[in-house]
């Protein structure tokens, strides 16, 4: 019996030893590729979990993480991001790494890194960003070596990086620093998404971003510590914890893990909202929109329907506070989509703006006269009766004029010949009013 017991015990020891020694190797084939759309969940930070436990044969159990929102890493070809980034050729692919950086006059937006994957390393070779509405590409003068291959337990590497931009004649941006990777553990990581054999990689990134003009340059130093759990089954970290470290104390600031679609959005995403300086006007008037979104949006997209609007005053559909002129009369709906690192939100205001042709609508007073009934079949009645010399024009929402088909009889306007639809009645003569009505 002793001999059998000893053999069983020895087998168990050997199997245990084999488990401790077993590890995976990460190489270039496990990195993202152009066209990848890889979903992840953000999780509520839990300081009671030991994210930085290191060693061989470790099991990291993060199955209790609670998702708070979701997004996707989208690795796009350079031409998909912006034709200006063909600077790096058709085979280059990039990922948006930040929505914005800087402040005021020195603010840049839509920051992308462009990657190169080789048998020995995965590097950021170029960076693209938008300044005052123009995309600007730049090569890293010192590429950022994100991973060096092969990656095995116990490996350590360090590298420096630097990229610079001439944003305008007297405005420049330089981003430089160093990166240290250490493979501090191997074993099994468990998340709500599943269980994976993994390497634990601790990364320290120390960076200084300097932006400004002449002697007025502003440095923004920052140091980040990340614990990334890499597997051979997924092309992004199975789990990634980022934060700061003081001495031996690591303070997590965000947690994200590879996940399937859950239909969640981050509570830190913006809440879109806006106002406009006028609801009624003419094709000669400028409509000024003001973003009122909360939770620090860094990107904006304005959609106006129908598409008879043009942006003016140096603004665009991606401006925070655009100014708009309309090419044709009509009733317009406006949608704002606001975004930041944590997601997007949109708000739609249907039939928000009534626009008439011509000028002098600044003096229109919609309280002066009213139309009824609405909807109407045969006649609309203007109350009170307009003064002598008053005339009108009727337009549909495409801008087509129907005046000839709608004779006026005192306070009544005969609309029986009009097709079913929504119309604008534009008054003239002392700049009276412009009112929308419906013919059923």
> What is the share of helical residues?
under 10%
Helices and strands: which structural class? mainly beta
How many structural domains are formed by the residues? Answer: 3
- State the low-pLDDT regions, or none: 1-21, 360-367
Say how many strands there are.
Answer: 29
Number of helices: 2
Radius of gyration: 31 Å
Strand proportion: over 45%
Tell me, briefly, the overall form: elongated
> Mean pLDDT, nearest integer?
84
The separation of the N and C termini measures 97 Å
Characterize the main sheet: 14 strands, mixed
In a nutshell, what does this entry contain?
The protein is built from two helices and 29 strands. It has 440 residues and is mostly beta strands.
Please provide a written account of the structure.
- This protein has 440 residues and is mainly β.
- The chain folds into three domains: 23-258, no CATH class; 274-356, Sandwich (Immunoglobulin-like), CATH 2.60.40; 365-439, Immunoglobulin-like (Sandwich).
- The chain is built from two helices and 29 strands.
- The strands form five sheets. Strands 1, 2, 3, 4, 5, 6, 7, 8, 9, 10, 11, 12, 13 and 14 form a 14-stranded mixed beta sheet that branches.
- The longest helix is centred in the N-terminal third of the chain and has 20 residues, at 2-21.
- It is elongated and about 95 Å long.
């Amino acid at each position: 019996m002793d001999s059998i017991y000893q053999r069983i015990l020895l087998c168990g020891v050997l199997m245990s030893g084999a488990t401790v020694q077993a590890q995976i190797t990460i190489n270039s084939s496990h990195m993202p590729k152009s066209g990848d759309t890889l979903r992840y969940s953000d999780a509520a930070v839990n300081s009671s979990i030991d994210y930085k436990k290191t060693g061989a044969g470790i099991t990291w159990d993060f199955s209790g993480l609670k998702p708070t929102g979701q997004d996707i890493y989208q690795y796009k070809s350079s031409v998909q991001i912006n034709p200006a980034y063909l600077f790096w050729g058709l085979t280059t692919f990039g990922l948006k790494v930040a929505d914005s950086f800087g402040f005021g006059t020195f603010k840049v937006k839509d920051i992308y890194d462009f990657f190169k994957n080789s048998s020995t390393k995965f590097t950021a070779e170029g960076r693209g960003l938008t300044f005052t509405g123009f995309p600007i590409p730049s090569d890293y003068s010192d590429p950022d070596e994100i991973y060096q291959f092969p990656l095995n337990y116990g490996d350590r590497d360090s590298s420096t990086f630097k990229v610079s931009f001439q944003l305008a004649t007297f405005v420049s941006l330089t981003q430089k620093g160093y990166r240290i990777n250490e493979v501090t553990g191997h074993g099994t990581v468990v998340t709500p998404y599943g269980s994976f054999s993994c390497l634990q990689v601790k990364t320290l990134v120390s960076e200084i971003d300097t932006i400004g003009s002449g002697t007025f340059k502003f440095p923004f130093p920052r140091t980040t510590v990340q614990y990334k759990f890499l597997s051979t089954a997924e092309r992004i970290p199975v789990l990634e914890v980022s934060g700061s470290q003081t001495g031996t104390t690591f303070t997590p600031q965000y947690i994200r893990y590879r996940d399937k679609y859950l239909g969640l959005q981050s509570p830190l995403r913006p809440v879109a909202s806006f106002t406009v300086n006028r609801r009624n006007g003419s094709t000669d008037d400028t409509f000024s929109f003001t973003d009122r979104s909360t939770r620090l949006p860094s990107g904006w997209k304005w959609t106006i329907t129908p598409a008879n609007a043009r942006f003016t005053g140096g603004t665009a559909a991606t401006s925070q506070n655009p100014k708009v002129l309309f090419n044709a009369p009509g009733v317009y709906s406006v949608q704002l989509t606001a975004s930041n690192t944590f997601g997007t939100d949109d708000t739609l205001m249907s039939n928000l703006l009534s626009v008439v042709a011509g000028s002098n609508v600044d003096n229109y007073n919609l309280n002066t006269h009213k139309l009824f009934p609405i909807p109407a079949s045969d006649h609309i009645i203007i109350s009170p009766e307009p003064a002598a010399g008053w005339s009108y024009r009727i337009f549909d929402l495409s801008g087509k004029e129907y005046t000839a088909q709608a004779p006026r009889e005192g306070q009544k306007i005969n609309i029986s010949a009009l097709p079913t639809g929504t119309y604008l009645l534009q008054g003239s003569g002392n700049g009276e009013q412009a009112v929308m009505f419906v013919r059923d």
